[in-house]
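Milestone 3.1: sequence recovery, worked example.
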């Protein structure tokens, strides 16, 4: 592609994104772009958060859905029925826009979807939508939605991989640039299927090419980074689903087309356990409720060298705030493990009087037993015990394990053993 043609293509995309942003205004005013004093002080930089968690549906998904519906209804025919598959933010954006446009739609959701998400989706859509619970996974639900569209003639609304969806998400970038006197030095964007990233990147490449861009994926679902390394779209055999808003096994075709020229080094992978620390930190210190995908961008700052941030203006797109508080115990657990403040052991304890007391005397003043469970209650000489210990600092475990070794206790640290810990914990 020649430079002239490439420039024309970028200008055309920006024009379409601007039209999408204008059409969006009856549903959504620009979301805030806020400087965060806590993060700015930590990183010696001006850290601004683009608060997509503050849309009516608490995510940016409303934008793409609005643009898709608007184009599909441009002819004025409102008898058309729409359908989507989602267990989260896309379903809520779909439902909200369907109700606003006065059209009907069907949302396919897995049977495993939390009741809270089902209820929110129904609340946003009201009488305009029907929810069908099909399959145990998103893939099964998605196949059912596609089949329904083919059989009924309904319009299928994809979650990310469609030009109209990408154009709608690009309105985020236009709002960022409109709110700033000069473009940011660094922009941090989450990547799941790539709809948001594809839209935002194309606007910045056209209007603010000097801005450095960092992409963020969960470490357990690095489909974008793996595709960049391979030079083609790849499908991951297995993904960690904790960051459900960004855990995608294969980046979209249209989104890949917009992002494939990027370098793998531009992608930061965030460990899921460490991400939990950031979720709790933003909740407890800043009072900001973020879902895992919405906290990715903030956590990624920990992975960047300090000199890459110091003195610069950095924008993080907090992409969503639909956090299910029933997950809070899991988040706390994973945060403690990431901080090195909690470990699990299998302890072989002699079955004799005083053995347990001897072990307890090894604990330091800041160590606390959070779990104590006999794994084999019929043992005669030794009993295997699942032991969970919490402490105030990771170095305390070095002291505890040294004492256990000196006292002759036999134990195994299973904290990071995915197979054993997955069964027992």
């Amino acid at each position: 592609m020649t430079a002239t043609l490439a420039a024309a293509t970028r200008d055309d995309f920006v024009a379409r994104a601007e039209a999408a942003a204008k059409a969006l205004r009856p549903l959504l005013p620009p979301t805030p772009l806020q400087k965060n004093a806590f993060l700015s002080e930590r990183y010696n930089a001006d850290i601004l958060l683009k608060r997509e968690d503050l849309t009516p549906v608490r995510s940016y998904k409303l934008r793409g859905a609005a643009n898709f519906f608007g184009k599909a209804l441009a002819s004025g025919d409102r008898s058309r029925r729409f359908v989507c598959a989602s267990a989260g933010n896309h379903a809520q954006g779909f439902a909200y826009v369907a109700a606003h446009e006065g059209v009907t739609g069907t949302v396919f959701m897995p049977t495993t979807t939390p009741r809270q998400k089902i209820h929110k989706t129904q609340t946003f859509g009201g009488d305009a939508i029907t929810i069908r619970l099909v399959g145990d996974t998103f893939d099964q639900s998605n196949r059912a939605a596609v089949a329904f569209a083919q059989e009924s003639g309904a319009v299928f609304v994809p979650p990310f991989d469609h030009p109209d969806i990408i154009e709608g998400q690009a309105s985020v970038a236009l709002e960022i640039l409109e709110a700033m006197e000069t473009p940011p030095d660094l922009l941090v964007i989450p990547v799941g299927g790539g709809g948001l990233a594809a839209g935002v990147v194309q606007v910045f490449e056209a209007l603010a090419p000097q801005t450095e861009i960092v992409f963020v994926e969960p470490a357990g679902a690095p489909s974008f980074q793996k595709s960049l390394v391979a030079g083609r779209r790849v499908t991951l055999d297995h993904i960690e689903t904790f960051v459900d808003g960004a855990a995608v096994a294969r980046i979209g075709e249209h989104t890949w087309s917009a992002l494939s020229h990027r370098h793998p080094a531009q992608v930061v992978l965030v460990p899921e356990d460490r991400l939990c620390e950031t979720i709790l930190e933003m909740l407890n210190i800043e009072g900001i409720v973020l879902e895992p995908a919405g906290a990715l961008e903030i956590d990624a700052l920990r992975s960047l060298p300090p000199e890459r941030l110091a003195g610069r203006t950095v924008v993080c797109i907090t992409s969503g705030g639909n956090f299910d508080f029933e997950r809070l115990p899991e988040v706390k657990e994973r945060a403690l493990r990431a901080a090195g403040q909690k470990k699990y052991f299998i302890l072989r304890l002699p079955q004799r009087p005083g053995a347990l007391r001897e072990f307890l005397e090894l604990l330091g003043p800041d160590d606390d037993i959070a779990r104590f469970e006999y794994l084999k209650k019929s043992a005669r000489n030794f009993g295997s015990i699942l032991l969970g210990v919490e402490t105030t600092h990771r170095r305390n475990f070095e002291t505890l394990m040294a004492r256990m070794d000196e006292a002759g206790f036999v134990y195994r640290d299973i904290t990071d053993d995915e197979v054993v810990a997955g069964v027992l914990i």
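The two ends are 55 Å apart (CA to CA). The domain at 81-153 is CATH 3.40.50.1100 (Rossmann fold).
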